[in-house]
Amino acid sequence: MSDHPPSANPDRGDSPITRAADVLRKGGLALVHDPARPERGGIVVAGASRTSDDTVNFLATHARGLTAVAILPDRAERLGLAPQRGSDGAIALASQAERWLVTVEARRGVSTGISAADRAATIQVLARADARLEDLTTPGHVHPTLADPGGVLFRNGLSEAAVDLVRAAGLEPVATFSQVLGDDGELLCGAALGAWGARHGLIEVRVAELMAHRMATESFVRQLSQATLPTRHGEFLVRAYENRLDHRQHLVLSLGETRSADPILVRIHSECLTGDVFHSLRCDCGPQLDEALRRVAEAGRGVVIYLRQEGRGIGLLDKIRAYALQDDGRDTVEANLELGLPIDGRDYGLAAQILHTLGVRRVRLLTNNPDKIQTITDFGVDVVAREPLEIAASDDNRSYLLTKKEKLGHLLGDV
Prior knowledge:
Number of helices: 15
Distance between the termini: 41 Å
């Protein structure tokens, strides 16, 4: 398997990531926040290697939160920066999300250390790839934090978001950032945060956009093994893949040569234990999987990706809980919402990454779901045609299929 990242890029054109990266490369600032977690407020981010005294002064004057510098573990180890600890010896956490390291000062080229110029000089030392332990002293006036090397996809902290954005700009992975406080000294959130950013001319980047950027420009899947798999539709090659983000394993059944400029027949199928294995009549999943394998075999070439995301991503237990609510009259959407679960939590970006490793770039997609088409298109797979995969409705699943059509937008002409 190739470890090269896929060629897809959701930042084609004038996207927030593209514009923010350009601003950061020029020494500017960007505003990052997560609408899914508004209570965390937002941060103003600059590349540490581009941080000047003007940057530090802006953060102190306008953002008004604690000015911090996010670094990766290898740099923290090289610079001898240990976690902050309380009087009892336990690691001290100034917030739930950030992992604070001992405060530092540049050993040379600063006076009191507190001025904007002095703090910028210290930040420049932290940003240097060749900086060493002897270049810093502690305690000081600059507050480093530890960011997970996997970024926001592995740990959704402010430090990780800051470093990911700086890396997207092609800068040294060290980020200067500060949370934004309002006039009352409290964190700015929601619309007030957006208005603040607009007033200061800052490009606004959402954490979800950072995640999508990384999913599209990096590869997080790896092939673990492969073997032949004889089925009643013919002998397929079966490959086991692992998602390095959550370590779940997924399967790919393929027939014929997949590396071709010609479009190939592809089915992306999400696991449905009740339908695929026990032939539940509540849904159309089992018959869809069987029909997909039959049609790939008939074509003589194609791919069926089996993603382990049970129950539209909610898992087996919650799926059975949702079934219980459906027994009482809710439809599938109403049941998920009543349980506080997403209507559809599936991730098809992973399937697009798998297709890239197989050399598949153009597909005829077996699906009734337009979201699936849009997602893998966004990840650089060209859907040249949609191949309908409708299963005749029965008395047991007619309501289920109608809900998929009316509430989830599935393209079901026969229901």
